[in-house]
Design a protein that fits this description.
β7 (229-230) and β8 (237-238) form a beta hairpin. The chain folds into 2 domains: 4-123 and 205-312, Malonyl-Coenzyme A Acyl Carrier Protein, domain 2; 129-197, Malonyl-CoA ACP transacylase, ACP-binding (Alpha-Beta Plaits, 2-Layer Sandwich), CATH 3.30.70. The mean pLDDT is 96. It is 50% helix and 15% strand. It has helices at residues 20-25, 27-40, 44-50, 53-57, 59-79, 93-100, 106-122, 139-153, 174-186, 207-218, 241-251, 258-265, 281-289, 301-312, and strands at 4-8, 86-89, 129-135, 157-164, 167-173, 191-194, 229-230, 237-238, 272-276, 295-298. The strands form 2 sheets. Strands 8-7-2-1-9-10 form a 6-stranded mixed β-sheet, sandwiched between helices. The protein has a 4-stranded antiparallel β-sheet with strand order 4-5-3-6. It has 314 residues and is an alpha/beta fold. The chain has 14 helices and 10 strands. The longest helix is centred in the first third of the chain and has 21 residues, at 59-79. Its EC number is 2.3.1.39. This is ACP S-malonyltransferase. Keywords: Acyltransferase, Transferase. It is an enzyme of class 2 (transferase).
């Protein structure tokens, strides 16, 4: 059997109608989607299939929706004997990775990420926090600029995601992000793109949410992961449940070190890195780290079958 890693997308990969063809094709996917509706107490499936986009983009809906599509695909692959030797995910996607590694049940995870989404929405006053993607600036230079902007504005602005070479996301108070958009361009960034998000995620401004989230994490049944999971906070493999729980709490206010995770995966002697879930964002990030890396994006019925056919090839 070929050795593959599964990586799972996070917020930003959601689209209306995601998972619909899987739902229509496979009874077991319908069961999973219905289980999500029952666990959450509302019709998540109709939001996923019908929208509107504004409803799907609400963090408390986006997170369980993406987890559900990723888990449906993971389960279909497992039924065909295809399992990863290692997993990871981008931010929210780490929960899909932990479900795949059987560290947490899907039923518990879907409820937990829904609550996580609510906490993230409410942790900082609406409209006062923001994020932006910075393209074409070295991390060290960016760090110095952010420190200067923070001192000028007396507001928090920090690195939130280290995605791939030349692509770093910053997070913080909207006043500081607004200054950063102009100042970083003047300092040499190729582009600075404000993101449509509802808060300053993966920054120290999320620490109040982390306190409450730690309690929620502690109420869930956890197991040691059956395959290693690269954690966002450390970019290192974890399997032990207590360490997993602690890192998930820290993940709310620490940077996502995804570029380092990709570099680690490329050292794993894998036959492919497979993005499992909606969209192709992570596939693009892998290619920016190593353009010749073997990748697959499994997000619908057609790509599912194409990947399974490749796995059967000698």
């Amino acid at each position: 059997m070929k050795r593959v890693a599964f990586v799972y997308p996070g917020q930003g990969s959601q689209v209306v109608e995601m998972g619909r063809d899987l739902y229509e094709e496979f009874p077991q996917v319908r069961e999973l989607f219905n289980a999500a509706n029952n666990r959450l107490g509302y019709d998540l499936t109709s939001i996923m299939f019908e929208g509107p986009q504004e409803a799907l983009t609400k963090t408390e809906n986006t997170q369980p929706a993406l987890l559900t599509v990723s888990t449906a695909l993971t389960n279909l692959l497992a039924e065909n004997g295809i399992k990863p030797v290692v997993t990871s995910g981008h931010s929210l996607g780490e929960y899909s990775a932990l479900v795949a590694a059987q560290a947490i049940s899907y039923a518990d995870a879907v409820q937990l990420v829904h609550q996580r989404g609510k906490l993230m929405e409410s942790a900082y006053p609406a409209g006062k926090g923001s994020m932006a993607a910075v393209l074409g600036m070295e991390q060290e230079t960016l760090q110095k600029e952010l420190q200067s902007i923070s001192e000028q504005t007396n507001e928090v602005v920090e690195i939130a995601n280290l995605n791939c070479p030349g692509q770093i996301v910053i997070s913080g108070a909207k006043a500081a992000i607004d200054v950063a958009v102009e100042q970083l361009k003047a300092a040499g960034a190729k582009r600075v793109l404000p993101l449509t998000v509802s808060g300053p995620f993966h920054s120290s401004l999320m620490k109040p949410a982390a306190i409450e989230f730690e309690q929620l994490v502690g109420e869930v049944d956890w197991s040691d992961a059956e395959v290693p999971v690269y954690a966002n906070v450390t970019a290192e493999k974890v399997t032990e449940q207590e360490q997993i729980k602690g890192l998930l709490v820290e993940q709310l206010y620490c940077p996502v070190r995804f570029e380092e995770i990709i570099e680690q995966l490329l050292e794993e002697e894998l036959d492919a890195i497979v993005e499992v879930g909606s969209g192709k964002v992570l596939t693009g990030l892998v290619k920016k780290v190593h353009r010749r890396a073997k990748t697959f994006s499994v997000q619908d019925v057609a790509s599912l079958h194409a990947f399974m056919d490749w796995m059967k090839e000698e």
